[in-house]
Amino acid sequence: MSTSAVEHAPGHAQAGGTAARARALTKAYGSGETAVLALDSVDVDIARGRFTAVMGPSGSGKSTLMHCLAGLDTVSAGQVWLGDTEITGLKERELTRLRRDRIGFMFQSFNLIPTLNAVENITLPMDIAGQKPDQKWLDQVIDTLGLRDRLKHRPAQLSGGQQQRVACARALASRPELIFADEPTGNLDSRAGLEVLGFLREAVDDLGQTVVMVTHDPGAAAHSDLVLFLADGRIVDEMPEPTAEAVLERMRLFSGGQSQPQTPAPDGTPVTEATDEPTDED
Predict the structure, then answer these.
(1) Could you write out the DSSP letters of every residue in 263-282?
(2) Mind listing the pLDDT tens digit for each residue in 105-118?
(3) What SS3 class is residue 210?
(4) Angle, vertex CA 49, rays to CA 47 and CA 51, nearest 5
(5) Residue from 50, 66, 65 nearest 241 by CA
(6) CB count, 10 Å around CB of 190?
(7) Which of 4, 114, 179, 208 is deepest in the core (most CB within 10 A)?
(8) How far apart are CA 44 and CA 196, in angstroms?
(9) Hey, CA dihedral for 1, 249, 105, 102, is it positive or negative?
């Protein structure tokens, strides 16, 4: 099934075009009779300037899809593009540079450096690359995320929600073409989770960013413009302008009539998760 967020829900006024796309994307782990097909000839387009959520039962392939689109995992067959750049077949050094310069990441684990304060964590990827941040943009991100009075605090001095906001600012700081968020509220309480989802929504609406979020939470998915549903490694449905109730009802169909979708196990580090055999959270 080929699906596109471009034709659907409203978002940033300047949005347009495709931020990422895949054609016949296939990912298999193992070989022979023991092979596990995590993605089965997926066609997908991610609209620029939109907030797309990816959902599915445990083992549906949602995390694997994100990792392949982000260049964190190799594909078994098919093609993936970031903008006009085909990333399938790039060498690891080229992929590393592409991820650093053009993609932002948020994960369930905040991955902050404990010895650095908030602003140092935010600018760390650019510092490593020897790049100076656009100060006007960085100030806008910091103010949008409400971090101005926390910039000198180290992670241990911040709440979980504040730490995830720092991680969000780090993902936004270089103004990437695409932000991937894998269960970004999984380690947060409901209030902090809602704050982070609101900031991702603002990043799309007010800052013109493009966000792809993998989640098992219908409430989180309701903040997006479009939900893509995966089952057995394929995109089987989509929902523009989602509500939590509608997403939950749709997920029940994919979960054999259970009262709520199955909750995946906590994610590990993205690179390890992307290169190992699939686990239940995929």
Answers:
(1) PPPPP--HHHHHHS---TT-
(2) 988 788 899 999 99
(3) coil
(4) 75
(5) 50
(6) 10
(7) 179
(8) 26
(9) positive
pLDDT score, position 151: 96
In this predicted structure, the answer to whether residue 4 has a pLDDT above a threshold of 60 is: no
At 255-277, the pLDDT tens digits run 654 434 333 333 333 333 333 34
Q: CA-based angle 177:15:136, to the nearest 5? A: 60
Query: Could you tell me the domains of the chain?
Result: 2-108+176-260 (3.40.50.300)
Per 3-state DSSP, what percentage of the chain is helix, strand, and coil (rounded to 5)?
35, 25, 40
Top-confidence residue, 133 or 43: 43
Entry pTM: 0.78
Element (H, E) at 236: strand 234-240
Which parts of the chain fold into alpha helices (H)? 62-69, 92-102, 118-128, 135-144, 160-173, 190-205, 218-221, 244-254, 270-275
Are 103 and 130 spatial neighbours (Cβ–Cβ below 8 Å)? no
